[in-house]
Write a structure and sequence with these properties.
Elements (H helix, E strand, L loop, with lengths): L21 E2 L21 E7 L6 H17 L4 E4 L13 H4 L6 H13 L2 E10 L6 E8 L5 E6 L5 E3 L5 E3 L12 E4 L2 E5 L8 H10 L4 E3 L6 H7 L8 E5 L2 E4 L3 E3 L5 E4 L7 E7 L1 H10 L2 H4 L12
Parallel strand pairs: 2-3, 3-4, 10-11
Antiparallel strand pairs: 1-11, 2-16, 4-5, 5-6, 7-8, 9-10, 12-13, 14-15
Pfam family, one: CN_hydrolase
Keywords: Hydrolase
Protein name: CN hydrolase domain-containing protein
């Protein structure tokens, strides 16, 4: 199951539209934050997940994101998750290199101002961050708080180098530098584990976030192709959708799924722009983890090391 922002293991009440977050249950108390306001998230707390069709126009995409953020604020959400490539999708591979900027550049600073002015946390999944290598950017997931400060970043570790059956050949590594570090951060909606799109195929990353970084909510902002999205997409996810250009199209299907695998939020149109809303119930997370104590049952990583013959 997937979610551009997928919540697996958390509970959601009466979603309104569509999103991108995955929540993983944890029987232990949420890890305390350096910021005392993060120490105990309200129960329940509302989150929004967004779906959109980004194009090769930074200003137009910002306008769309601003509208979705305002909708989330009006719905009472404390955080909104925007999809991978929220700020820009080029017409051809490598176009993103031409617009890549550092995190203190004007593009990201506009989103910091948006968060501060609207008083809401932002999950910005898949920003084209300019790094030291001029030939390659970083695909960076950025968390901004409601004061407009960047709280955490994660650079996508697993790059999409895939020959899609019946479709195009993708080589993300040709213009993207892979990340090396796992990232988790406290927020008003719980302790977040940060990932991006294709990371979803690699469960060991999520095991690390769940069991070693105390993640309660896993964010998976995405821009799946129609072929891979149709085959593998079911979660809480904020997703790209529709035709970005003549050469690029995304699957869409923003979802919110509860800890038992029930779809509780879904946009009525897989290709539309909008948001879905859900309330994360941390008491249900604790209940599920208590009744199904995976943390106690799982084997340590050393258990799976091959033994000499």
């Amino acid at each position: 199951m997937l979610l551009n922002c997928s919540l697996n293991g958390a509970s959601f009440h009466r979603p309104i539209r569509s999103s991108h977050v995955t929540a993983y249950a944890n029987s232990s108390t949420a890890r305390s934050s350096a910021d005392s306001t993060m120490a105990a998230a309200p129960n329940p707390v509302r989150v929004a997940a967004a779906q959109m069709t980004s194009i090769n126009d930074i200003a137009s995409n910002f306008s769309t994101c601003s509208r979705l953020v305002e909708e989330a604020v009006s719905a009472g959400a404390k955080m909104i998750c925007l999809p991978e490539n929220f700020s820009y999708v080029g017409q051809k591979s490598g176009d993103s290199l031409l617009i890549a900027e550092p995190l203190d550049g004007p593009i990201m600073q506009r989103y910091c101002s948006l968060a501060r002015e609207c008083g809401i946390w932002l999950s910005l999944g898949g920003f084209q961050e300019k790094g030291p290598d001029v030939a390659r950017l970083r695909n960076t997931h950025v968390i901004i708080d409601d004061a407009g400060n960047i709280r955490s970043t994660y650079s996508k570790i697993h790059l999409f180098d895939v020959d899609v059956p019946g479709g195009a050949v993708y080589k993300e590594s040709s213009f993207t530098e892979p990340g090396k570090d796992i990232a988790a951060v406290d927020s008003p909606i719980g302790r977040l584990g940060l990932t991006v799109c294709y990371d979803l195929r690699f469960p060991e990353l999520y095991q690390q976030l769940r069991f070693h970084h105390d993640a309660q909510v896993i964010l998976v902002p995405s821009a799946f192709t129609p072929v891979t999205g149709q085959a593998h997409w079911e979660v809480i996810a904020s997703a790209q959708a529709g035709k970005h250009s003549e050469k690029r199209e995304s699957y869409g299907e923003t979802l919110i799924i509860d800890p038992w695998g029930t779809v509780v939020g879904r946009l009525p149109d897989r290709q539309s722009t909008g948001i879905t809303i859900a309330d994360i119930d941390f008491s249900l997370i604790d209940s599920v983890r208590g009744k199904m104590p995976i943390a106690k049952h799982r084997k340590p990583f050393d258990f799976w090391r091959p033994t000499p013959l």
